[in-house]
C-alpha cells in the first residue's frame, strides 16, 4: 500500500529536512508514525502562528529513519532545482507553462462567472433588464476552447479577459522522478538516534521535546489524541551525566505527570557479550519522589 | 523547634473548589529575627548614636570610642570554630554542638548530616521519645506530603467517577460489575504490584518498557497511561509520628547522644576560613591544623574524583569556579545555599531560608573568553566544556518557573593559567581570585500569547 508515495523526496535546505507535499505529510503520519513539525504559515490566516501548514520540517532522526526504511530519498533542494530547470526539455517546459496558464485562466473564468451572476441577480432584483451581450450562458462555450487548442501559445494573453498567475505549491512535475538514485549520504544524527529508533520501533510517536526541556516527547499514539508519557533524553553509553540534569528532568517530568526517560545503546563489546547482533538499547525511567 | 514550613518547598497548592478543613491553631513561631540576628558569625560594635539635645549621649559615645581604642572587643568568636576536613565525603565536618548551632544561626552555613538542612536530629529524636512537643520542619513537610497525596488520590477517584458517569450516559458502559471489560486505573495499578520492580526510583529495565497499544482510532475508553509508579508512590509510608506513638523502641531510656554533625561544603569552609577567618580546619587523621592556603589547594584537588595532583590543577577547577561565585554573592550579602534540589548550583536567600523562599537560582557556567583559550589546540576542549544543549536550558528554566524562582546564569570568565602560575609555590588566594570576572544573566520564560497585555 506504500507504493503510491514511496519513495518520496525529503528536501535538504540549509541542513534542515523538509517535506512539501501535503499528501506525503499525511501519509507518513498515518503509516510511519512520523509527525514532524509544520512550519509554513497559512496564507488565509497569516497573522498567527498557532496553526501552521506545509512545509513540514523533519528532525534529522526522522529523516534518517525514513531513509533507512527506503521510504524516502534525501535530495539537496537547491542543486536539484537548478539542474532540473537547466536541463528541462523544451516541450516539457512549454507544456508546463501552458498548463499553468490554463489553470490561471480557469480560475479567472470562475471569478468572472461569479461576478456576472451576481450582477445578473442584482439587476433582476432591481427589475432591470440584463444587457444581452454577456449573459452567464455564454461562458460555457468558449471555456472548452483554449484547453483543447494546441496553438494556444500563439494566442496573445489579453485574449482571455482575466488570467490569474498561479503559483504552484509543488514543483514535482518538472523534477526528475524520485526513484533516481542520489549520492547524498544518510542524514547525520545525534548520539540519541538508537534511542529514537528503539522507541519508534515500539510504536511510539516521537516529537521534538524542546518545549518540555528534553530531546524527545514520547507519545503512545497520535499526538492529537494522546498526551505524551515520557520525556526522553538519549546519550552515549559511557557518557558522563551531570547529576543536576537527572534532578531537573525528574522534577520536571513528575511535575507534568510524565516519566523522565534516559536511554542509550549498549557498546559493541557489551552487545557481543550478550550474543546480540546489534547493540541493545536500554532505557530507564526516573521519577521524583517528593512531589 | 521551628514549626515554620521551610522556605524551600513549593507554596501550597490551591485546592480548587474544595474548602479546606479549618486548621488547628499553629504553635507560635520562634523569634527568628532574634535567633538569626547576626548575618555572619562576626560581631560588630557600632558606636552609640549621638543625640544633639542629649549631652549625655556625647559622653557615652566618647567613652565607647576610647574604650574600644584601648581594648577592642573581639569581633570573631572566641575560641575560633574548629572543624575537620573529611577526605571521604569531600566536605568539612563540625562536631561541637555549640559551633554547629552558631554556624547555622549566624549565616545558615552547612547542613545537618542526618537532617534536610538545619541540624534537627536531636529535636526529632527527643520528640520521638516524647520529650519534646514541637514539630520539626521535616515532620511538617512529611505531613504536608501525606495530605497532598491523599488529595491527589481523592481527585483521581473523582475524575474516574466522572468518566464512568459520562460513559454510562453515553451507553458505552453497561456492566460495571464485570470490571474486566472496563479499564479502571486502580485495577491497572494493582496488577503491577505483584511484579518485582528493580529499585525504588528507577523503575523498569528495558524489557519492561511497555509498547503502546496499537493506535487504532477505536473506542476512546482504552486510552490508558503506561507510566508506572514505584512502590513508595502507590503505598505511602505511614507518618513517622504515628509509628513512633505506636511502638516504644529499644533503648528509649538511654541518654540521647547526639549522632549528628554539621557538614560544610568546601566552598563554605573556605569562605569561613579565608573570607571571614572564623574557622580553623584540622586534618581528620592527624588532627593538625591546615593553613588557609593549603586548604585552598586541597579543595581544588578534591573537586575532581579521584583528587588530582597539585601540578595538574587548572584555573577552571570546578571548585575554583564555584567558590568565586559563592564568595561573590556572600560578599553582596546573600545567603547562598546549595540548589541541587532544584537542579541548579546555588540558591540565593535574602536573609535566610527560615525567613523567605529563595529568590534566585544560580547556574554557574565557565566562560573561556580569554584569547588564551581560543587557540586551536585548546579550542575543542573549551567548547566542549562551555556548550550545553538548548533543551537543557529549557529544562532548568521550566523547573525554576514551577517553583517561582528567577533563573540567573552566572558566567565566570576563566583567566589563562599563566596568571595563576606563581601559585604553585605559595598560594596567594586573593590574587588568584582577583583574576576571575563574573557576569550575571537573569532569564525568564516568556510566552508571547500569555504575556500579551
Automatic annotation (TrEMBL), chain A:
Organism taxonomic ancestry: Eukaryota, Fungi, Dikarya, Ascomycota, Pezizomycotina
Any single GO BP term: tRNA-type intron splice site recognition and cleavage
Function (record text): Constitutes one of the two catalytic subunit of the tRNA-splicing endonuclease complex, a complex responsible for identification and cleavage of the splice sites in pre-tRNA. It cleaves pre-tRNA at the 5'- and 3'-splice sites to release the intron. The products are an intron and two tRNA half-molecules bearing 2',3'-cyclic phosphate and 5'-OH termini. There are no conserved sequences at the splice sites, but the intron is invariably located at the same site in the gene, placing the splice sites an invariant distance from the constant structural features of the tRNA body.
Occurrences of domain TSEN34 N-terminal (ranges): 9-77
CDD domains for this protein: tRNA-intron_lyase_C (cd22363)
Keywords on record: Endonuclease, Hydrolase, Lyase, Nuclease, tRNA processing
Residue span, tRNA intron endonuclease catalytic domain: 192-265
UniProt-recorded name of the protein: tRNA-splicing endonuclease subunit Sen34
Automatic annotation (TrEMBL), chain B:
Enzyme Commission designation: 4.6.1.16
Bias-annotated ranges (Basic and acidic residues): 180-195, 221-240
Residue positions of the active site: 349, 357, 405
A single GO molecular function term of this UniProt record: nucleic acid binding
GO biological process, any: tRNA-type intron splice site recognition and cleavage
GO annotations of cellular component type: cytoplasm; tRNA-intron endonuclease complex
UniProt enzyme class: lyase
Lineage per the UniProt record: Eukaryota, Fungi, Dikarya, Ascomycota, Pezizomycotina
Record flagged with keyword Lyase: yes
Residues in coiled coil: none
Residue span(s) of domain tRNA intron endonuclease catalytic: 319-391
Signal peptide: none
Pfam families linked to this entry: tRNA_int_endo
Stated family: Belongs to the tRNA-intron endonuclease family.
Function as written in the Swiss-Prot or TrEMBL entry: Constitutes one of the two catalytic subunit of the tRNA-splicing endonuclease complex, a complex responsible for identification and cleavage of the splice sites in pre-tRNA. It cleaves pre-tRNA at the 5'- and 3'-splice sites to release the intron. The products are an intron and two tRNA half-molecules bearing 2',3'-cyclic phosphate and 5'-OH termini. There are no conserved sequences at the splice sites, but the intron is invariably located at the same site in the gene, placing the splice sites an invariant distance from the constant structural features of the tRNA body.
Keywords: Lyase, tRNA processing
Superkingdom of this protein's organism: Eukaryota
Residue ranges of the region described as Disordered: 1-32, 179-252
This protein's name: tRNA-splicing endonuclease subunit Sen2
Amino acid at each position: 500500500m506504500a507504493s503510491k508515495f514511496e519513495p518520496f523526496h525529503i528536501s535538504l535546505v540549509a541542513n534542515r529536512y523538509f517535506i512539501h507535499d501535503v499528501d506525503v505529510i499525511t501519509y507518513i503520519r498515518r503509516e510511519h508514525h512520523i509527525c514532524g513539525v509544520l512550519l509554513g504559515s497559512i496564507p488565509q490566516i497569516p497573522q498567527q502562528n498557532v496553526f501552521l501548514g506545509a512545509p513540514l520540517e523533519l528532525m534529522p532522526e526522522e529523516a534518517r529513519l525514513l531513509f533507512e526504511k527506503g521510504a524516502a530519498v534525501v535530495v539537496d533542494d537547491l542543486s536539484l532545482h537548478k539542474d532540473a530547470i537547466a536541463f528541462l526539455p523544451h516541450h516539457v517546459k512549454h507544456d508546463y507553462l501552458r498548463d499553468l496558464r490554463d489553470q490561471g485562466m480557469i480560475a479567472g473564468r470562475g471569478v468572472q462567472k461569479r461576478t456576472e451572476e451576481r450582477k445578473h441577480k442584482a439587476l433582476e432584483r432591481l427589475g432591470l433588464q440584463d444587457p444581452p451581450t454577456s449573459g452567464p450562458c455564454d461562458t460555457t462555450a468558449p471555456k472548452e476552447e483554449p484547453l483543447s487548442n494546441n496553438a494556444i501559445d500563439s494566442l496573445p494573453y489579453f485574449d482571455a479577459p482575466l488570467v490569474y498567475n498561479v503559483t504552484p505549491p509543488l514543483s514535482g512535475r518538472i523534477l526528475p522522478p524520485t526513484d533516481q538514485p542520489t549520492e547524498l549520504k544518510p542524514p547525520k544524527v545525534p548520539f540519541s538516534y538508537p534511542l529514537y529508533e528503539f522507541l519508534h520501533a515500539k510504536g511510539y510517536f516521537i516529537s521534538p521535546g524542546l518545549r518540555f526541556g528534553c530531546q524527545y516527547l514520547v507519545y503512545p499514539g497520535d499526538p492529537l489524541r494522546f498526551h505524551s508519557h515520557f520525556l526522553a533524553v538519549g546519550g552515549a553509553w559511557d557518557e558522563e551525566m551531570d547529576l543536576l540534569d537527572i534532578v531537573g528532568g525528574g522534577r520536571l517530568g513528575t511535575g507534568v505527570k510524565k516519566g523522565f526517560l534516559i536511554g542509550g545503546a549498549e557498546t559493541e563489546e557489551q552487545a557481543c557479550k550478550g550474543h546480540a547482533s546489534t547493540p541493545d538499547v536500554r532505557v530507564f525511567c526516573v521519577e521524583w519522589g517528593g512531589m | 523547634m521551628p514549626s515554620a514550613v521551610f522556605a524551600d518547598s513549593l507554596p501550597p497548592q490551591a485546592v480548587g473548589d474544595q474548602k479546606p478543613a479549618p486548621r488547628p491553631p499553629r504553635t507560635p513561631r520562634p523569634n527568628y529575627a532574634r535567633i538569626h540576628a547576626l548575618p555572619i558569625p562576626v560581631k560588630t560594635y557600632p558606636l552609640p548614636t549621638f543625640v544633639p539635645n542629649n549631652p549625655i549621649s556625647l559622653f557615652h559615645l566618647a567613652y565607647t570610642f576610647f574604650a574600644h581604642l584601648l581594648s577592642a572587643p573581639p569581633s570573631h568568636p572566641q575560641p575560633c570554630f574548629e572543624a575537620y576536613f573529611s577526605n571521604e565525603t569531600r566536605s568539612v565536618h563540625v562536631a561541637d554542638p555549640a559551633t554547629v548551632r552558631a554556624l547555622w544561626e549566624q549565616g545558615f552555613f552547612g547542613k545537618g548530616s542526618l537532617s534536610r538542612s538545619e541540624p534537627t536530629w536531636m529535636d526529632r529524636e527527643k520528640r520521638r521519645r516524647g520529650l519534646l512537643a514541637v514539630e520539626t520542619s521535616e515532620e511538617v513537610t512529611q505531613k504536608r506530603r501525606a495530605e497532598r497525596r491523599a488529595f491527589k488520590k481523592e481527585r483521581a477517584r473523582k475524575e474516574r467517577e466522572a468518566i464512568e458517569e459520562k460513559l454510562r450516559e453515553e451507553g458505552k458502559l453497561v456492566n460495571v460489575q464485570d470490571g474486566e471489560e472496563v479499564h479502571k486505573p486502580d485495577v491497572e495499578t494493582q496488577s503491577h504490584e505483584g511484579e518485582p520492580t528493580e529499585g525504588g526510583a528507577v523503575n523498569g529495565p528495558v524489557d519492561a518498557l511497555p509498547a503502546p497499544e496499537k493506535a487504532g482510532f477505536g473506542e476512546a475508553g482504552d486510552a490508558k497511561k503506561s507510566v508506572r509508579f514505584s512502590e513508595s508512590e502507590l503505598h505511602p509510608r505511614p507518618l513517622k509520628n504515628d509509628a513512633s506513638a505506636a511502638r516504644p523502641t529499644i533503648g528509649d531510656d538511654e541518654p540521647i547522644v547526639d549522632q549528628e554533625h554539621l557538614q560544610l561544603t568546601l566552598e563554605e569552609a573556605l569562605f569561613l576560613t579565608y573570607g571571614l577567618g572564623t574557622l580553623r580546619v584540622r586534618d581528620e587523621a592527624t588532627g593538625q591544623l591546615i593553613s588557609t592556603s593549603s586548604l585552598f589547594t586541597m579543595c581544588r584537588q578534591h573537586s575532581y574524583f579521584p583528587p588530582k595532583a597539585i601540578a595538574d590543577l587548572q584555573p577552571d577547577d570546578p571548585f575554583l569556579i564555584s567558590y568565586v561565585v559563592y564568595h561573590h554573592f556572600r560578599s553582596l550579602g546573600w545567603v547562598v545555599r546549595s540548589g541541587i534540589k532544584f537542579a541548579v548550583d546555588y540558591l540565593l536567600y535574602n536573609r535566610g531560608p527560615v525567613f523567605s523562599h529563595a529568590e534566585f537560582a544560580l547556574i554557574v557556567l565557565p566562560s573561556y573568553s580569554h584569547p588564551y583559550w581560543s587557540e586551536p589546540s585548546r579550542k575543542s576542549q573549551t567548547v566542549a566544556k562551555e556548550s550545553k544543549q538548548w533543551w537543557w536550558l529549557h529544562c532548568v528554566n521550566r523547573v525554576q518557573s514551577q517553583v517561582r524562582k528567577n533563573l540567573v546564569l552566572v558566567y565566570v570568565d576563566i583567566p589563562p593559567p599563566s596568571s595563576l602560575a606563581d601559585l604553585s609555590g605559595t598560594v596567594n588566594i586573593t590574587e588568584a581570585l582577583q583574576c576571575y570576572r563574573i557576569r550575571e544573566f537573569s532569564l525568564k520564560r516568556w510566552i508571547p500569547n500569555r504575556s500579551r497585555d
